[in-house]
Structures are given as structure tokens and as C-alpha cells.
Design a protein that fits this description.
The chain has about 180 residues and is α+β, with helices and mostly antiparallel strands. It folds into 2 domains: about 70 residues, Integrase, N-terminal zinc-binding domain (Arc Repressor Mutant, subunit A), CATH 1.10.10.200; about 100 residues, 2-Layer Sandwich (Alpha-Beta Plaits), CATH 3.30.70.980. It has 5 helices and 6 strands. The longest helix has 30 residues.
């Protein structure tokens, strides 16, 4: 009767839920740390205030938020960048990345793209396909596609798989694409 008791089932569900929560928290901590670089007071830093609100909406403890803000004033090691790529069916993808080592992150993302029928694009080559909601592309907001594209079913499945893989990467904070799903 192994594996049939209630605690085993609860333990596995809890472990999966905790892993997802951990990934979300690590992204939010990076976002808060980047936003708090200039001004550590959320009252005077709208980007930090928005990041703190997102963290509170995800039920992140206040201690973690305060620690992330303190970390920003102590260290300047995190770097922000935007990666542009073409996915299956020629779909434009823009990923906002916060990383401590871009020499590790770029090859990781390049590998994910090549495994899933995608390729990197030149920086700035996909700006025409998106518009920012709040007028600013930075700040962790998803971009709105200006010209949404229809794609075939096989490419739709590949694109969804690629987007899942990109979202699983700890360094990627948001991804935007111009496909109609």
C-alpha cells in the first residue's frame, strides 16, 4: 500500500506549490532590488512602489520585501536587459531579464530558443511590434502587441511550450509576444 496514505499526497502537492511560489518570490525580489537602486523609499519611487504592490499581491512577507530593498542599497550586482527573439511561426517575443550574470543568462535563453524553434533577434528590431501600456517598456509590465498575428496550430503548441520554458527561467521577469492565442 505504499504511496497511498494521505500525507504522501499532501507532501507532493505542497512541494510543487512551494517551488512555484519560490520562483515567483525570487523574480519579485530581483524586481524590487532593481527598482530600489535609485531611491529606496517607495513614496518617492513609483517603480519600487509598483514592485512592492505586486509582491504584496503575491503574498510575499514584509520581511522579504524589506530585505530586498536593503540589498539594493548594499549591492549593485543585478543587471537589467531586454532580449528580443523570434519564436515558432515568426512570432515576435520580448523578454525582460534581471540577472546577476548576463554571460550565463544569454546562452541559457539562446539554448531554450534553439530547442523550441526560436532564435535571437537584434536589439531594437522588434520595438515596432509592441507598445507599452503605461508609456514605458521598463518596469516589468507586459507589452501590448500592435499587430497580433494568426499562427498555425502546430506553431501555437510550440510557442506555448517555448513561453512556458521562458517563464520557468528565474532570470526572466516578463515575456510578451504578438501571437493571437
Amino acid at each position: 500500500m505504499s504511496g497511498h496514505n494521505k500525507w504522501s499526497q499532501i507532501k507532493h502537492k505542497k512541494a510543487a506549490k512551494d517551488q512555484k511560489r519560490s520562483n515567483i518570490f525570487s523574480r519579485l525580489v530581483k524586481e524590487i532590488t532593481i527598482a530600489a537602486r535609485g531611491e529606496a523609499n517607495p513614496e518617492f519611487n513609483p517603480r519600487l512602489k509598483a514592485a512592492v504592490l505586486r509582491a504584496k499581491a503575491a503574498n510575499m512577507p514584509n520581511d522579504n520585501i524589506e530585505r530586498a530593498i536593503k540589498k539594493a542599497s548594499e549591492s549593485k550586482e543585478l543587471e537589467e536587459m531586454t532580449i528580443e527573439a523570434y519564436g515558432p511561426g515568426g512570432i515576435a517575443i520580448i523578454a525582460d531579464v534581471i540577472t546577476d550574470n548576463k554571460n550565463r543568462t544569454i546562452p541559457e535563453i539562446k539554448h531554450l530558443l534553439s530547442e523550441n524553434n526560436g532564435k535571437l533577434a537584434e536589439s531594437g528590431s522588434l520595438d515596432w511590434a509592441f507598445s507599452a501600456k503605461g508609456g514605458s517598456a521598463s518596469g516589468g509590465e507586459k507589452l501590448e502587441p500592435k499587430f497580433p498575428q494568426e499562427i498555425q496550430d502546430k506553431d501555437k503548441e510550440r510557442l506555448q511550450k517555448l513561453l512556458e520554458k521562458l517563464e520557468e527561467n528565474d532570470d526572466i521577469s516578463t515575456t510578451s509576444h504578438n501571437a493571437k492565442l
